[in-house]
């Protein structure tokens, strides 16, 4: 009976961990959606600014530069959220093809590139160093 409760406790802990991960990812995704709406509005503002400049014949581009800087900042924030979401979900981008895959994968499902090779090479070199010292 004690073994049953221990197993149940382990299953409950795993379920809670998955629920926490899903909740954190959902919150980050909502933040990203809000930033995407902001980015959309900034692009609209940029379009209006360019239109007004063309309509008035103005060549002063300070307003365009200002909106462009805002857009760049928002895009950086969205990229940072994407990285945080990937971290929470245990995902990485393949250095070979850019596919998003699980961190624990040894090979990319998109291009077949061996992902764990670099880490294994580092560990092998460390083991060789230890063996040669003995």
What does this structure look like?
The protein has 134 residues and is mostly helical. The protein has a domain of 88 residues. It is 75% helix and 4% strand. Strands 1-2 form a two-stranded antiparallel sheet. A hairpin with a 6-residue loop joins strand 1 and strand 2. Helix 1 packs antiparallel against helix 2.
Q: Summarize this, please?
A:
This protein has 134 residues and is mainly alpha-helical. Helix content is 75%, strand content 4%. A two-stranded antiparallel sheet has the order 1-2.
Show the helix and strand layout.
Layout (H helix, E strand, L loop, with lengths): L1 H55 L5 H28 L1 E3 L6 E3 L14 H17 L1
Antiparallel strand pairs: 1-2
Helix pairs in contact: 1-2
Main beta sheet: strand number and arrangement? 2 strands, antiparallel
> Considering DSSP H and I runs of 4 or more, what fraction of the residues is helical?
over 70%
Distance between the termini: 50 Å
How do the SSEs run, as a string of H and E? HHEEH
- Strand order in space, largest sheet: 1-2
Write down how many β-strands occur, each being a DSSP E stretch of 2 or more residues: 2
Helix and strand composition category: mainly alpha
What gyration radius follows from the Cα positions, in whole Å? 24 Å
Instruction: Give the helix tally.
Output: 3
Pick out the low-confidence regions. Answer: 118-123
Strand content: under 5%
- The overall pLDDT, averaged over residues, is 86
Shape: elongated
């Amino acid at each position: 009976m004690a073994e049953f409760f221990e197993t149940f406790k382990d299953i409950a802990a795993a379920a809670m961990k998955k629920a926490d991960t899903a909740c954190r990812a959902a919150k980050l995704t909502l933040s990203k959606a809000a930033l995407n709406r902001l980015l959309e509005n900034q692009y609209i503002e940029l379009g209006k600014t360019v239109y007004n400049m063309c309509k008035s014949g103005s060549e002063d581009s300070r307003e365009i530069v200002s909106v462009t800087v805002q857009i760049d900042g928002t895009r950086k924030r969205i990229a940072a959220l994407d990285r945080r979401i990937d971290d929470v979900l245990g995902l990485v981008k393949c250095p070979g093809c850019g596919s998003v895959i699980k961190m624990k994968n040894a090979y990319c499902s998109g291009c077949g590139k061996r992902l764990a090779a670099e880490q294994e090479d580092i560990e092998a070199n460390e083991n060789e160093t230890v063996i040669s010292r003995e």
